[in-house]
Write a structure and sequence with these properties.
It is globular and about 75 Å long. It has helices at residues 56-63, 67-78, 125-136, 170-186, 213-230, 248-256, 259-262, 278-287, 310-323, 367-376; strands at residues 3-10, 18-20, 26-27, 36-46, 49-53, 88-93, 141-146, 193-195, 237-244, 267-271, 292-297, 329-334, 336-338, 354-357, 362-365, 384-390, 395-401, 407-413, 419-425, 428-434, 438-445. By secondary structure, it is an alpha/beta fold. Helix 2 crosses helix 3 (125-136) and helix 6 runs parallel beside helix 8. The protein is built from ten helices and 21 strands. Strand 19 (419-425) and strand 20 form a beta hairpin.
Length: 446
């Protein structure tokens, strides 16, 4: 009979990724119908992993904490057993809104990039990444994303407030990515993939740059793809879109329908800010099944939300929704922010799963931290999503088969009422109890 290890997080209780009484599978009685039927013989996508963003704001905030508290936070995210087992990260190519200000790695008008220098990142960002990689051990998957080309490469002459890449700088900008990949590689931080542009359909008051779908397609096809190949970096993946789900089908289709552009593209990156239209994620998979899907950014906007429960439920709902539509990895936004929800150089304050109070040296673990852990701790890199037939009203669910053969089943109840669901696996039945506003992970092994 299967052995089950159960972990529970529930509102208005002390349960936070807490061990709970395991469920017991018993032989199915004739005619018995389960609410959720697990189908381990059916396989879907393979998981890359889970992680968050190494922004300058996160790294700077941690530098202002005591060494002990900084180490605790890194451990609580990246340790494979005692932490959330994060194995992925995202880093911005020069500045983003969660930097202390606009900056680039070159001097103005240096089209040849002779002055390219990442020493800015040596102060806070690279030390944090290296410490996280050491705590994690083993494979580490890193995505790098630009928010804006240097001001002198753009139509509006500034890094903020949108603008577009000037065509005469397209090759220089493409080579900028290769210089970054090479510089980080020399620091012992291999870059697994780059996205073309963070949020290319948004004009933001911070670092931003607009691309139409056609402009993104042509930049990949004529500049970024060929330049990366010429530099011997064809093993580094290219991710397109890196923006919201709402128009991802149209945006991905323009690029991926062009064979000359598509040959350079690993897949499509998505954010959650434009609504929870998970079916659009699945549509992109159906249209382009040989390409991949990655959640590249999401956070709770509007400053710090200490102690709130809806933030954790937002993560849980979005993670289940995207994973059930072929998404292969999940990258949270800032790993940590300070007590204000920053620093952010244009005041775009947000929340993070961990808030570090730099005035009191206290660490606050938000509900989102625990909700993410219900996935990241128990769904290992290389896990494959399995079939799951659910008739359980009001309960969200997803399930994976780990490389060690164990099954990880995540169940989530957002309602004010407790509920119970019956689970079926290989002809055996078990009952799982879900308190109000709770999330549970069952790891099932032989």
């Amino acid at each position: 009979m299967a052995k089950v290890q159960t972990t529970l997080t529930a509102k208005n209780t002390g349960d936070r990724l807490s061990p709970a009484q395991g469920i017991v599978f018993t032989a199915k009685v004739q005619g018995q119908q389960a609410d959720i039927v697990l189908q381990p013989e059916v396989g879907y996508q393979k998981m890359l992993g889970f992680g968050g963003a190494f922004t300058e704001s996160a790294a700077y905030t941690l530098s202002r904490m005591s060494p002990e508290k900084r180490s605790e936070i890194i451990h609580r995210y990246f340790h494979p057993v005692e932490g959330l087992a994060y194995s992925m990260g995202r880093v911005h190519i020069h500045s983003c809104d969660f930097s202390l200000g606009n900056f680039t790695y070159v001097e103005d008008n240096d089209k040849e990039l002779a002055t390219f220098d990442i020493s800015h990142d040596h102060k806070w960002v690279l030390p944090l990444i290296k410490d996280a990689m050491e705590v994690r051990g083993g494979e580490f998957t890193m995505l790098a994303s630009p928010w804006s080309p240097p001001a002198w490469m753009k139509s509006n002459g500034e890094m903020n407030n949108g603008g577009t890449l000037l065509p005469e700088y397209a090759d220089s900008w493409a080579r900028y990515y290769t210089k970054f990949i090479e510089a980080y590689g020399k620091e012992g931080v291999p870059i697994w993939a780059v996205s073309v542009q963070n949020e290319p359909a948004a004009v933001q008051v911070w670092d931003s740059c607009e691309y139409t779908a056609e402009q993104e397609r042509d930049f990949v096809k004529n500049h970024l793809g060929p330049v990366m190949h010429e530099a011997g970096l064809d093993a580094v993946n290219i991710v397109i879109w890196d923006h919201n789900r709402d128009i991802m089908v149209e945006r991905a289709s323009v690029v991926l329908s062009d064979p000359e552009a598509a040959k350079y593209v690993w897949g499509t990156g998505i954010h959650w800010y434009g609504g929870e239209e998970f079916e659009k994620v699945g549509q992109v998979h159906e249209l382009f099944p040989d390409k991949h899907l990655l959640f590249t950014e999401g956070c709770q906007e509007g400053g710090v939300k200490l102690g709130e429960w809806f933030t954790g439920e937002r993560y849980g709902r979005n993670m289940i929704g995207d994973l059930n539509q072929w998404t292969e990895g999940y990258l949270d936004w800032n790993l940590v922010l300070d007590e204000t929800g920053g620093p952010n150089h244009v005041g775009n304050l947000c929340d993070a799963p961990i808030i570090a109070d730099t005035t009191t040296d206290e660490i606050h673990y938000n509900s989102s931290y625990y909700y993410i852990g219900h996935f990241s701790k128990y769904i290992a890199p290389g896990a494959v999503r399995i079939g799951l037939d659910s008739q359980a009203k009001g309960v969200l669910s997803t399930a994976f088969r780990n490389p060690d053969g164990s099954l990880a089943l995540v169940l989530m109840n957002e309602s004010d009422e407790a509920c119970s669901v019956t689970l079926e696996l290989s002809g055996d039945i078990a009952e799982s109890h879900l308190p109000p506003h709770s999330i549970v992970t069952h790891v099932i092994s032989e």
